Amino acid sequence: MNRNEFFEYILDNYLINGDAARMLDNILKFVENNYPDENDQYRVLCELLDGTIGLSDREIRKAAF
Fold first, then answer.
1. pLDDT tens digits, residue range 36-58?
2. Total number of domains constituting the chain
3. What residue numbers bound the domain in which 26 lies?
4. Mean pLDDT across the stretch 12-27?
């Protein structure tokens, strides 16, 4: 799943809007632009999103773009 698909998945499945949605989109862009390796993306997303909105490990693993 690419970054846009993952962002849309989160918006569709979690109660995220406004400033929180913009912050999440910025986090995803940062990870995509600075961590080209999927394992690094997964590790960083786990660090940044752990416990924030209830994403499971499996959901984050699918998000490595």
1. 999 999 999 999 988 888 888 88
2. 1
3. 3-63
4. 94
Instruction: Provide the residue count of the chain.
Output: 65
Going from the C-alpha of 6 to that of each of 1, 26, 52, the distances in angstroms are 6, 13, 15
| Per-residue tokens: 39 | 């394992």
Q: Which residue has the tokens 């962002």?
A: 7
d(CA 9, CA 62): 11
* Dihedral over Cα of 40, 49, 8, 17: its sign: negative
Give the C-alpha separation, 34 to 50, whole Å: 19
Q: Are 59 and 8 in contact (CB under 8 A)?
A: no
